Amino acid sequence: MLTVVAEIIAKPGCEERLREELLRLVEPTRAEEGCLQYDLHAATDQPGHFLFYENWTSREALDRHLATPHLERLASLLPELAAGEARISTFERIA
Question: pTM (2 decimals)?
Answer without folding.
Answer: 0.92
